[in-house]
Recover the amino acids of this structure.
């Protein structure tokens, strides 16, 4: 799915106005761009105000599926940012949007390996589900002859980050995928690590997805970055041309690749996980169009060029 | 690691004596060859007696790492089979044998995602370990700023089938592999499914290994089938030429591939997971030298040719 077209080396962003004027929509990754853990990154409110004052559409995209759109809305509010639910695209929402886009039958069920965000979005979209946090305490007694029953109406298994991951869930998801004819295998993302706390990197959704890949020998359909599903959905919903989008993120292999896969302009910010050394390393094959320290450089680079 | 050389189509075994006379060692997979779950397969004791009476060396190999050699010995005894511990090679033992083969330092520790068999074999070999079943009830509280401490002396993470698999273990193993310089990542096997009970297929060691591959983006060193580590070890330990070995198993992608990767003769038995239809399907690229219904065909095919 990922395309690794070689791009020319990234240029430092020098004239922010030129970039801003060249697009109509900015898609922002959240962690490492808007906030770090629970702290807002310096200058973000003023930057978003500037972009809104210029009539730009703002969209916030995250691979984190533990919260719903509504729950993310509260996080923005707590940080003092005026962002509406409709501007937020979390991979939890992307799961429900994907099921709608393929007319997934409402009489079928979704088995969830993941947290509350996915359940809330499925519920809002009117889908029946099972699994999720409540299966986190279930155990399997492997007595001779024991058989785990599973629901034959499960038509999709959705896998996202799950701190209550266990063998019960692996087996339930595996049985559904292997034994229910046509059962879909959908992943919110395959991120190796995630930033659940500021203190260290935590094993990400890629570990839960990897477990199911190992036991089913099937590849999932990924709805989060770097797959283009969310980009296609956004372009379609808002009627935007992809060349009129600038994707802004702190990760090369998700955010920047996501932007490039979608045919958008790309801006890497160094306020998250990627350092300038990593960007410029000969081992790095993913080059954004531009890079800068943080999004509030839009303010100072603007001032410098006026 | 796996070699997929195309072999000519498998032949039905017609003259067992000829095969028996052509080798000095038989390596048997256990589940689906010697027993199914907790039941001995018909004619096995007489077949093993016949092979011993002809002076053949017998070796029993299993990817299952939940038991130690000694614990497997008891299973053979319970089923009425006279097999010594030294003839049994489980992937739990292979882990310890591998660490010995590379002179893994005794002052380093091994973090185990797996069950008792691995712990027992590490203990017998004199290695320090942590993890295993006792981490099965550990939970992570993802409070802001929380950091999981890990032991910097962990020099190897071993991953095998683990019914008590959880996020704590995934994160501990991931931290060790990502942050401890030179830390090894060793898998007992990557089997998609395993036969913990007769009633259904269960997600196998491949799911635990897949989770760690997903979060570390590293590939493990596999000590079980179809990797040739155990074959090399056996050949070296007993001074056997690999062409003098016949590998007998019920699975194409582990047993038969294991035999072929090692340069041995191969015999598929249809008493386990593989049907004649699967063997002869155009999609199957793995062809053993011979196939037969069950190992006790050695007795009747012998009688027919005398």
């Amino acid at each position: 799915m990922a395309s690794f077209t070689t791009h020319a080396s990234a240029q430092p962003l020098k004239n922010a106005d030129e970039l801003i004027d060249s697009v109509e929509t900015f898609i922002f990754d959240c962690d490492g761009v808007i906030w770090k853990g629970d702290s807002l990154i310096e200058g973000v409110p003023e930057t978003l105000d500037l972009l809104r004052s210029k009539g730009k559409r703002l969209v916030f995209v995250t691979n984190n599926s533990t919260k719903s759109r509504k729950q993310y809305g509260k996080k923005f509010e707590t940080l003092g940012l005026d962002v509406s639910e409709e501007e937020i695209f979390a991979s939890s929402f992307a799961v429900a949007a994907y099921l709608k886009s393929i007319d997934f039958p409402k009489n079928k069920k979704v088995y969830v390996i993941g947290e509350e965000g996915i359940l809330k979005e499925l519920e809002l979209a009117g889908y029946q589900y099972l699994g999720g946090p409540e299966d986190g305490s279930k155990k399997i007694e492997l007595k001779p002859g024991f058989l785990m029953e599973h629901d034959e109406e499960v038509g999709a298994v959705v896998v996202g980050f799950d701190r209550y991951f266990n063998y019960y869930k692996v087996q339930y998801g595996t049985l559904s995928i292997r034994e229910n004819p046509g059962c879909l295998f959908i992943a919110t993302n395959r991120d190796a690590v995630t930033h659940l706390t500021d203190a260290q990197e935590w094993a990400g959704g890629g570990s839960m997805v990897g477990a199911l890949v190992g036991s089913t020998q099937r590849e999932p359909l990924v709805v989060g970055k770097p797959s283009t599903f969310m980009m296609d959905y956004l372009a379609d919903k808002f009627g935007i041309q992809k060349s009129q989008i600038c994707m802004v993120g702190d990760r090369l292999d998700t955010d920047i690749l996501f932007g490039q896969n979608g045919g958008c302009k790309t801006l890497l910010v160094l306020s998250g996980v990627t350092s300038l050394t990593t960007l410029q390393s000969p081992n790095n094959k993913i080059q954004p169009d531009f890079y800068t320290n943080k999004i509030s450089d839009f303010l100072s680079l603007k001032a410098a060029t006026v």
